[in-house]
Amino acid sequence: MEKNALRLPAGFESYQEARQAGFLRMKQLKESGARVIGLFCSYVPIELVYAAGAIPVGLCASSEEPIAAAEANLPRNLCPLIKASYGFALTDTCPYFYFSDLVVAETTCDGKKKMFELLGEIKETYVMQLPHSRDAAALAFWKEQIIAFQKKLEDFYGITITEEDIRAAIRRKNRERDVMLRYLELGKLNPAPISGYEMGTQIDVGSFSFDLEERCKNVEARTAQVIADWEANYKGKQSDRPRLLLTGCPNAGVREKIIRTVEEMGADVVAFDTCSGTREKVEKVDESNPDVYEALARKYLNINCSVMSPNDSRRGYIGEMIDEYAIDGVLEIILQSCHTYDVESYFIKRFVTQEKGLPYLNIETDYSQSDKGQINTRLAAFLETIEK
Hints:
Number of strands: 8
Number of helices: 15
Strand order of the largest sheet: 2-1-3-4
Radius of gyration: 20 Å
Helix content: 40-55%
Shape: globular
Distance between the termini: 16 Å
Structural class: alpha/beta
Order of helices and strands: HEHEHHHEHEHHHHEHEHHEHEH
Oligomer: single chain
C-alpha cells in the first residue's frame, strides 16, 4: 500500500458539495410541507423530532466564513463553533437555519447558552437545560426536560405525540446507530480499509440526505463495498502506518488541516471518540424500558462529552477503543476557548501516556488557516515519536 494513499473512493463527495446538494433537497421538502427542526448537538433527543413527524437537520457551524460578522456581537476569544453557528444565522447564509421551523438548543457550555439568547432574536429557539452530572437527581431532571420538549413540539405543531410514535422512532434511530457504528468500526481492520478523512466526512455528509432509511442503506452499501475490497486486496497485509485515535471537540471545521494532513504524512486515523464518531452511537436507547422517557434520559445523559463532571467514563471508553482498534497514538483536538475539553485534556493525556503507555498530542486550534504550518510541524514530530 502507498505510504501516503488516502484511498478516497471514485466520486467522493466532499462535505461542501454534499451540503450544497442538501440545500436543494431541503428547499423541495419545505415546499412540500415538511416540518423541519434545526439542531446543534447530539444531546437533543432526536427520537422526539422523528416522533413529531419532523426532519432533524444539523445547522451550519463548521466554517470560518461568517465568524467576522458574528464577532460584531460576540467576543473574539470565543469558540469558533459558537461564533460560526451564530454567524451563519446572523448573515442568513445557512439555508438549513432559514428552512427550520424551530431551533432546538441545549446548555452544553456557557458560551453556547448565552449565544442562544442572541439566536432567539433571529428565530424561535427552544433551549433544553442539560444537567452536567449523572446522578439520580440529574437523571430525574433530564427526564422532565425531555417531557417538556415533547410538549413544546406538540404545542408548536398542534399535534399529539403518542408513546408508540416515540417507540417507533427509537427503533428507527437505534437501527441507524447500529449501521453507523459498523461503518466506524471498519477502522478495527488492519490495514485500515479506508481513510479516516473519508470516514469522518461521510458520516457528516450522510446527515444531508434527510431520509433515515436511505442514509442507512447508503452506509450499509459502502460498508459492504469496503469489506469486500479489503478481503480481496488487503487482508493479511499488515500495515506499518501508525494507527491514531482522534478525540476531543467536533472536528468538521478542521478536518482538512488536521485529519487529512496527518494521513497524508503517513498515519491512519482509525478511531473517533467524537460527537459525530462513536461517542453517541455506542450506547442505544433501551427499547425494553417500560418508561420511554427514562430510557431516553439515560441514553442521552450517558454521552461522554466533557461537559459532564466527573467524566471518568470517557477515559474508560477511550481505553477500550485503544485496545480494540490497536491504537499507536492519540490525537486530541481542542477548539479555541473550549474550556471543558481543554481542562479535561489533562486527564486524557495522563491516562493515555501513563496508563496506556502511548504518545499523545493535544492541538488547540480554530477554523482559520493561520496555524496550519505550526500544526504540520507538530504532527510530523508526533508521528516520529510513534514506534512501529
